[in-house]
Design a protein that fits this description.
By secondary structure, this protein is of the alpha/beta class. The protein is built from 9 helices and 16 strands. It binds the ligand NC(=O)CCC(=O)C(=O)O. GO terms for molecular function: omega-amidase activity.
Length: 305
């Protein structure tokens, strides 16, 4: 079947398409926590099987992990990268487009290394139920970390940072972030202001920060903004240079964990009910209680000119 993906970067104001599901409130989401190897074809097969399984379980929205077609390592990103504008050179996008179209579902395609005019990006592609590329999100906050004796990683050595938030309208209004993007509450607050129902963060937290922070930041983004947060990680593989934490999770609008996984390969299915967002906001109207008048950060020079 011919792929239906387009190359236009549709981020904020995508027009509704005929496949948009109107006023959907309840549906199933799947988080495909995939095992990632250095064999790209095998990674694609695994993802394809997990998507099919999710569809059989009734999922309408499917989330894949950060860097699922490629090991999470600076040595691999360029080798595994695909040029999204060249259909023949992008087997991963073709597979995602066909899967979305065949099954009539929305796929938040995790993230992949993307080549564009000599630059590499860590990019999430979102396909609608018609198989078209609705948007792509390039990771905005690159992950640079150096904890001596524990972990040292510098995404900015290989990737260029994206510079746009990404919202798509399919099964509700969805905001996208990639892994380290979750640490920045400003991005989630912006999505909240723009009416997002769920923020999906494909991610690959590590063993040093994962235990303490992975769940904490997901619940914080959800509870601060009274919306759903979904994360999807690769499963743990201790043989590579970077060991991922795993634990793909869905959090509800009051900060409650609806479902979570361990670190092994698995497909997590859960039901989302968007009416819980309104319930939560009605019983605790944080937006009305906000005091924007006193939050302005005042530069010390304004106080002491
Ligand atoms: N891939 C990433 O962005 C990892 C982010 C992470 O582990 C963190 O602590 O932040």
């Amino acid at each position: 079947m011919a792929s239906l993906w387009t190359t236009r970067n549709l981020t904020m104001a995508d027009a509704p398409n005929p496949f948009q599901i109107p006023n959907i409130t309840k549906f199933k989401i799947a988080l495909c926590q995939l095992s990632v190897t250095s064999d790209k074809n095998q990674n694609l097969d695994r993802a394809s099987r997990s998507i099919r399984f999710s569809v059989e379980q009734g999922a309408k929205l499917i989330v894949l992990p950060e860097m699922w077609n490629c090991p999470y390592s600076s040595d691999y990103f360029a080798k595994y990268a695909e040029d999204f504008d060249n259909r023949d050179a992008s087997p991963t996008l073709s597979m995602l487009s066909e899967a979305a179209c065949c099954h009539g579902i929305t796929i938040i395609g995790g993230s992949l290394p993307e080549w564009d005019h000599g630059r590499l990006y860590n990019t999430c592609c979102i396909f609608g139920p018609d198989g078209k590329l609705k948007a792509k999100h390039r990771k905005i906050h690159l992950f640079d970390i150096d904890i001596p004796g524990e972990i040292s990683f510098k995404e900015s050595d290989t990737f260029t940072a994206g510079d746009q938030p990404t919202i798509v309208d399919t099964v509700g209004r969805i905001g996208i972030g990639i892994c380290h993007d979750i640490r920045f509450p400003e991005l989630a607050a912006l999505y909240r202001k723009r009416g997002v129902d769920i923020i999906c963060y494909p991610g690959a937290f590590n063993m040093s920060t994962g235990e303490l922070l992975w769940e904490l930041v997901q619940r914080a983004r959800a509870v601060d903004n009274q919306l759903f947060v979904a994360t999807c990680s690769p499963s743990r593989n201790s043989t590579g240079s970077y060991t991922t934490w795993g634990h793909s999770t869905l959090v509800g609008p009051s900060g409650e964990i609806i479902v979570t996984s361990g670190h092994e390969e698995t497909t997590v299915i859960a039901e989302i009910d968007y009416s819980n967002i309104q319930l939560q906001r009605k019983s605790l109207p944080l937006d009305d209680q906000k005091r924007e008048d006193i939050y302005k950060v005042i530069d010390v020079h304004e106080l002491n000119p």
